[in-house]
Structures are given as C-alpha cells and as structure tokens.
C-alpha cells in the first residue's frame, strides 16, 4: 500500500511545486474530515469483534448496519461543511493562487465522493476484518490500490492520457474507493447474517485445526524431551562408571572420580532446568479447549 502511495506521489511531483503544495494541504484537510468516520470504523471493529466472539452473527450484522449508517451521517455533515468552506480553508495556508485553486477543486471533489463512498470502502471492511474475513479485505485493498489508484492516476493525470494533472490523481483515488465499496457491499449484502455466520464457522474450524496441530507438536516435543533426558542420563552414568573402573585406577585417574561425579550431577541438573523451561514453553499458551483436547 505504501509503495502505491509513493508511486502516486512521484507522479504528483512531476506537476510542479504548486501541485505538490495543493496535494499536501488537501490531504491534511481531508484527514481532519475523515476523523469522525475513522472513529466509527474503530468502533465497528470493537463491537463486531465482541459479537462474533460471543457467537452472535445476527447482532454483529445489526450493529454493522447501524454504525456504518452513523459513519455516513458523520461524513455527510463534515463533507457538507467542507464543500462550502473549501475556498476559505485553503486561504489559511498562504499558498500561491494556482495552488489554492487546485486545492479547493480537489477538496470539493473529495467532499462529494467521500460522502458517497468513504463509509462502505473504509468503515464496512472493518466489520469484515473483525469477523475474521481479513484475507478478502486485504486482497481487495491491494488489487484496487494498484489497478485503480496507481494505474488510473497515470491515465487520467499524465499528458499522454487525459492530462487532468492533480485532479486526475484524486479522481483515480475516488475510483479506487468506488471499487472497494462495491466489492465490500457485495461481500456483506450477498449473505448478510449468513455470511458472518459462515465466517464464524470457518474461524471455529481453523481454531480446532490449530488446537490439533499444537497438540501434536506438543506430543512430539514431549517425546523429544524424553529421548534427550534418556541420552543425558546414559552419558552421565557411563562417565561415572568409567571413572570407577580398575582401568581408571591403573591410569591413576582415581583423583578425577569425584570431578566426574560432580560433572555428571551438574549436567543432569542443567538438563532438568532446560527441560522445565521447554515444558513451560510448550504449555504456556494452552487454553481450556486445548487442555480438553
């Protein structure tokens, strides 16, 4: 996503300093306008996550519709104010006349398109992510970013295309919003509650698979620890026996017998400590469902 933004910014810099300044100011003002909608998006993540965790997709769908509607209302109010005050707002930044005209133009375009498409393209996918459908939202966002915002920016803005300069870049961004809004709305409305319920079932299946994999890995880890413990015990026993054989006395190694026993005891103690820490690591994330499994 950031690579796409850098590609678009690289295109904007080719239009001159006035376009760069107008784009920066417009982005700053648009960021303030988006704050209420972004707050609703964060609320959707929390509320829908709680509902899905409780296994109630019907309530999750109901709250999603309410909060997306609230996001629409907030964006409508903020964008209405922006549309009528865009010309005055850009004068606060002491830009050149060309930069002020460009900034006011793209801000008015932003006010219109953000009212229509911002909420379904940015607030609604938060509900899908909270429900566990993150792969679809990520795929749509990446594909739409490069297919619409980046590619269309060059087609609409460059001189070999439509030559719309900065306005073409922002129109390409609005096309990106439109594609996202349509795909996310289809994803949500095609099943509505049933789509969220299917996501719940998929998440439960993945959770059960994760528990089974962890159980098998834990059993494998326990077997490995047992084999390692047996090997250490055999090694320390062999060292102790060798240092007490008559051959040891013949080689005048009696003085090393006590050292060998101490070393064997130290190795055994270290192994026990390692085994305890590995067992704690194996069972650290074990939940009630995994314990039952």
Question: How would you explain this protein's 3D organization?
Answer:
The chain is built from eleven helices and no strands. The protein is mainly alpha-helical and 293 residues long. The two termini are 40 Å apart.
Order of SSEs, N→C? HHHHHHHHHHH
Sheet having the most strands: none
The general outline is elongated
Number of helices: 11
Q: Stretches where pLDDT falls below 50 for ≥5 residues? A: 247-254, 287-293
End-to-end separation: 40 Å
Radius of gyration: 32 Å
Number of strands: 0
Notable traits:
disordered C terminus, 87% helix, mainly alpha, 11 helices, single chain, 293 residues
Chart the SSEs and their pairings.
Blueprint: H1 2-13, H2 17-33, H3 35-53, H4 57-90, H5 97-130, H6 134-157, H7 165-191, H8 193-243, H9 246-250, H10 257-283, H11 288-292
Helix pairs in contact: 1-6, 2-4, 2-5, 3-4, 3-5, 4-5, 4-8, 5-7, 6-7, 7-8, 8-10
What's this entry about, in short?
The chain is 87% helix and 0% strand. It has 293 residues and is mostly helical.
């Amino acid at each position: 996503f950031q690579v796409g933004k850098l590609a678009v910014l690289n295109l904007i810099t080719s239009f001159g300093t006035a376009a760069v300044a107008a784009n920066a100011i417009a982005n700053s003002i648009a960021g303030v306008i988006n704050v209420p909608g972004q707050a609703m998006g964060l609320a959707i993540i929390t509320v829908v996550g709680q509902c899905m965790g409780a296994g109630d997709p019907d309530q999750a769908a109901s709250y999603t519709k309410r909060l997306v509607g609230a996001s629409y209302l907030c964006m409508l109010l903020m964008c209405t104010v922006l549309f009528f005050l865009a010309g005055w707002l850009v004068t606060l930044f002491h830009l050149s006349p060309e930069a002020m005209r460009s900034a006011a133009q793209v801000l008015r375009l932003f006010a219109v398109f953000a009212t229509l498409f911002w909420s379904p393209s940015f607030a609604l996918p938060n509900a899908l992510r909270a429900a566990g459908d993150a792969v679809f939202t990520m795929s749509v966002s990446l594909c739409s970013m490069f297919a619409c915002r980046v590619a269309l920016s060059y087609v609409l803005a460059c001189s070999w295309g439509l030559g719309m300069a900065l306005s073409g870049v922002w129109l390409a961004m609005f096309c990106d919003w439109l594609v996202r809004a349509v795909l996310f709305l289809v994803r949500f409305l095609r099943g509505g509650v049933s789509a969220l319920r299917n996501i719940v079932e998929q998440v439960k299946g993945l959770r059960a698979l994760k528990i089974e994999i962890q159980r098998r890995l834990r059993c494998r880890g326990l077997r490995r620890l047992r084999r390692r413990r047996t090997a250490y015990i055999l090694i320390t026993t062999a060292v102790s026996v060798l240092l007490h054989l008559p051959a040891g006395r013949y080689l005048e190694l009696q003085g090393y017998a006590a050292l060998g026993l101490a070393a064997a005891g130290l190795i055994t103690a270290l192994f026990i400590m390692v085994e305890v820490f590995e067992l704690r690591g194996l069972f650290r994330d074990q939940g009630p469902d995994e314990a039952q499994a």
